[in-house]
From TrEMBL, chain A:
Keywords: Signal, Transport
Source taxon at top rank: Bacteria
PANTHER family the record matches: ABC TRANSPORTER GLUTAMINE-BINDING PROTEIN GLNH, AMINO ACID ABC TRANSPORTER PERMEASE
Positions of the Solute-binding protein family 3/N-terminal domain: 57-283
The protein's name in its UniProt record: ABC transporter substrate-binding protein
SUPFAM superfamilies in UniProt: Periplasmic binding protein-like II (SSF53850)
TrEMBL record, chain B:
Official protein name in the record: Amino acid ABC transporter permease
Source domain of life: Bacteria
Ranges that cross the membrane: 20-40, 52-74, 80-101, 183-203
Residue ranges of domain ABC transmembrane type-1 in the record: 16-200
SUPFAM superfamilies attached to this UniProt entry: MetI-like (SSF161098)
Gene Ontology molecular function: any one: transmembrane transporter activity
UniProtKB/TrEMBL annotation, chain C:
Protein name: Amino acid ABC transporter permease
Keywords of this entry: Cell membrane, Membrane, Transmembrane, Transmembrane helix, Transport
Organism: Gandjariella thermophila
PANTHER family: AMINO ACID ABC TRANSPORTER PERMEASE (PTHR30614:SF21), MEMBRANE COMPONENT OF AMINO ACID ABC TRANSPORTER (PTHR30614)
Gene Ontology cellular component annotations, sorted alphabetically: ATP-binding cassette (ABC) transporter complex
GO molecular function: transmembrane transporter activity
Domain (ABC transmembrane type-1): residue spans on this chain: 66-257
Length: 296, 216, 295
């Protein structure tokens, strides 16, 4: 009975708290210099841009659970991260400021569908360009060259690259490409492979020393390292190539060219590096050279 | 249809072996812990009774997934002995199932009519004698059939460990999906596997229930 | 306190029990103290690790997660009750062609671990071109499993009705469907209500399985909040808060089941004082409820 009263008390207490919550939050994310929206932009022959114009707002598909890449800040309910800054930059160059952007979180498996349905105008969120996807959607960019890498504890010097994983517990997401690669190339023993439903869980296990390595694209790993730069580090020897692109409708060549121009300019005038340093750069990994835009 | 099984034989075999290991260890663990808890709950010492009741009430009203969550994600943060994922799964299943074992055993003891104990004490039997030759044999009969149900539930519950990085039978479905194998056929084999494990248990339960009900 | 195991203690036994009591209290305090000490030593009571509770957005997220848990529970429970009723009726039918398939379905879904069922819905259906999403994968799984169990509960309830009930109803000239819907089912449901609610507690607990397929319910939210770097990754505090919510919800339901059971029992005893030896029967019922909940 006493336990029950306590439990009910806790519940009521937490509900009561709701009425008087704190606003804002202890966000540690530095933000990149915001871009003034361009004026008088025209993109001839782009159905998507016409739709944006008619709506007066731009709808961007993003990830909401990747720290320092695309994350919905739990205390401010604002989207933050590298991908988000890229999305903001593109929107600004199309003439739409931060206040005219609607973000829509879309999980990985429904990205193609969301773009094809027109639920989002374009998608920025760890979206690897590959030929299979190019049949359904098109890609501007790449704006970042990711590659499979390793996240380890800061004091761990025994892991230097994919060949030093033998005897180490390696964690990644159930059924993901990175963990398949570890298995196929036999980088570690099968019983040392640990799978969870999300990277966050792997990072939790890494911090509590239940696993030794988390592996996936370096961009994602850098995001987690940026969250706890004094506890985690990215090894920095990528062993695959995952070019991240901006996904958009398959037949919208005009908008694709426009976004390619925006990205290319940002890479040349230093905006790209500013964005990197303000987000993923917090992990301690220096900015790489931005990738070559692939206009096809 | 047999292709799915043959092509992925190691996956199925390892999965089910691991399930049986999990089950066996957690069954032993929960029987021991559950009996200890039941002893506490029927003891004449109020503190022990309260402690036992508290444990049972909290654990019984907690989802097993949450118990797993606590041991797999929270426990390692406490800086105690480091345990493998398999051990953590055994611990979670044991902690959870023990609450149900406890209640079954306790209810079983309560089915023995009061007069039985009083009569045996009147005959001058000592406490161990009362327990061993009068109470336990009667309680055992009414406890075993429902205890079998608890064990069947435990067997099915082991599949939750699949979500916490133990490669057992529950992990076969996601693995098949990853390999692009037909999942529905795969599931049929998993079901057959479980039926092979569960049916003898429930057959035993039914027989015992019938036989012992007549005997009473 | 007298039980089958012990007599009412005399002075000697009282003294012995008191000693045991002191020792037991010390042990319990030591265990709880050690847990508390480990929590404190690893900084679980650090204000930073609890400060997330203060933010309005997080409170709203938690409420949304609670809503997600409850909506899976409510939809799952409603569908499971319907499923259970339909299949119980089918199993009680006079027609073998209805009885047999219903029996197969019910036995099948009772034998499969719920996790396998949910995984299959979640992983297999998209391949067949039907995307049901996490919510429906979870809810359909919960419905099929708990519905099958409930079908058995309903059936047992109807079969336990005294024969005189249906005989009297037939004698009054009621049709088969009328006997079932107006005489047998209402009484059976009333008698089985505690068991039905116990099964709903199981269903509520099983909504947490949604965590395994990333349905954004309470446990998922706990995991997410528990990983936030800016609050020192408060996974233990979030687990504690969510556990408190789950436990109080389940206890509320369990308490309702117990309350109804006590009320039923009182009425039965009052109505039929001649019914002999209620204690054994009661504990047997208790046994059934307890084992049900283990699932």
């Amino acid at each position: 009975m006493r336990v029950r009263t306590l439990a009910v008390g806790l519940l009521v207490g937490s509900l009561a708290l709701t009425a008087c919550g704190k606003q804002g939050g202890p966000s540690q994310l530095g933000s990149a210099p915001s871009q003034a929206p361009a004026t008088g932009v025209t993109v001839d022959g782009s159905p998507t841009f016409d739709k944006i114009k008619a709506r007066g707002r731009v709808v961007i598909g993003v990830k909401q659970d990747q720290p320092y890449l695309g994350q919905l800040n739990p205390t401010t309910h604002k989207y933050e991260g590298f991908d988000i800054e890229i999305a903001k930059l593109v929107a600004a160059k199309l003439g739409y400021g931060e206040d005219k952007i609607d973000y829509k979180p879309i999980p990985s498996q429904s990205r193609e569908q969301a773009i094809q349905n027109g639920d989002v105008d374009f998608y920025v969120g760890t979206y690897t360009i590959n030929d299979k996807r190019k049949q359904q959607v098109s890609f501007a960019g790449p704006y970042y060259m990711a590659g499979q890498d390793l996240l380890v504890r800061k004091d761990d010097t025994s892991i230097t690259g994919p060949t030093s994983l033998k005897g180490k517990k390696v964690c990644s997401v159930t059924g993901s490409t990175p963990i398949q690669r570890v298995r196929d190339q036999q980088l570690t023993e099968p019983n040392n492979i640990v799978e969870f439903q999300g990277y966050q869980q792997c990072v939790d296990q890494l911090l509590s020393k239940q696993v030794d390595v988390v592996t996936t694209d370096d961009a994602i790993l850098k995001g987690y390292a940026a969250q706890s730069p004094d506890q985690l580090k990215v090894v920095g020897k990528p062993f695959s190539q995952e070019p991240y692109g901006v996904g958009l409708a398959h037949d919208d060549k005009a908008l694709r060219t426009k976004i390619d121009d925006v990205l290319q300019q940002a890479e040349q005038d230093g905006t790209w590096k500013q964005i990197y340093d303000a987000t993923l750069g917090k992990s301690g990994s220096p900015a790489p050279t931005p990738p070559q835009i692939d206009r096809y | 249809m047999i292709d799915v099984l043959v092509n992925n034989w190691p996956l199925f075999a390892e999965g089910f072996v691991s399930t049986i290991e999990l089950f066996a260890l957690a069954a032993i663990g929960s029987l021991v812990l559950g009996t200890i808890l039941a002893t506490m709950r029927v003891s004449p010492v109020p503190v022990l009774r309260t402690a036992g009741a508290g444990y049972v009430n909290i654990v019984r009203n907690t989802p097993l997934t949450l118990v797993f969550f606590f041991f797999v994600f929270a426990y390692p943060r406490l800086g105690l002995v480091e345990l493998s994922f398999f051990t953590l799964a055994v611990v979670s299943l044991t902690v959870y199932t023990a609450a149900f074992v406890c209640e079954t055993v306790r209810a079983g003891i309560n089915t023995v009519p009061l007069g039985q104990g009083e009569a045996s004490r009147a005959l001058g039997l000592t406490f161990p004698q009362t327990l061993i030759s009068v109470v336990v044999p009667q309680a055992f009969r009414s406890v075993v059939p429902p205890l079998t149900s608890v064990m069947i539930a435990l067997l099915k519950n082991t599949t939750i460990a699949a979500g916490f990085s133990v490669h057992e039978a529950g992990a076969i479905t996601p693995a098949l999906s990853e390999r692009g194998e037909p999942i529905l056929l795969g599931m049929l084999w998993i079901v057959i596997g479980f039926l092979i494990l569960v049916l003898p248990l429930s057959a035993m339960q039914r027989t015992l229930e019938k036989r012992w009900r007549v005997a009473r | 306190m007298s039980s089958v195991l012990y007599d009412i203690p005399g002075p000697k036994a009282k003294a012995r029990n008191a000693t045991f009591g002191v020792v037991a209290s010390l042990v319990v305090i030591a265990v709880l103290g050690f847990i508390g000490y480990r929590f404190a030593a690893t900084g679980q009571f650090d204000p930073l690790k609890w400060s997330w509770l203060e933010y309005q957005t997080i409170q709203l997220d938690l409420l949304n997660a609670l809503k997600a848990t409850l909506s899976a529970f409510v939809v799952g429970a409603a569908l499971a009750l319907v499923f259970g009723a339909v299949f119980a009726l089918a199993r009680l039918s006079d027609h073998a062609w209805l009885r047999a398939p219903a029996a197969v379905v019910v036995e099948f879904f009772r034998a499969i671990p719920l996790v396998i069922l949910i995984f299959t819905l979640y992983y297999a259906l998209p391949k067949a071109g039907v995307t049901v999403g996490v919510f429906w994968s979870l809810v359909i799984g919960l419905t099929l499993y708990n519905g099958s169990v409930l079908a058995e509960v309903f059936r047992a309830g109807v079969e336990a009705m005294p024969k005189g009930q249906s005989e009297a109803a037939y004698a009054l000239g009621l049709r088969k469907s009328q006997v079932m819907t107006t005489v047998l089912l209402p009484q059976a449901v009333r008698a089985m209500l505690p068991t039905i609610i116990s099964q709903l507690v199981v269903l509520l607990k099983d909504t947490a399985l949604g965590f395994l397929i990333t349905y954004q319910e309470l446990l998922f939210e706990a995991r997410y909040l528990g990983g936030l770097g800016e609050f020192g990754r408060p996974i233990i505090p979030t687990a504690m808060v969510v556990a408190a919510v789950y436990i109080s919800l389940c206890m509320l339901l369990s308490w309702l089941a117990n309350y109804l059971e006590r009320r039923n029992r009182r009425k039965v005893r009052y109505a039929g004082a001649a019914v002999a030896k209620p204690t054994v029967a009661e504990t047997q019922d208790e046994l059934k409820i307890d084992t049900l909940q283990a699932e």
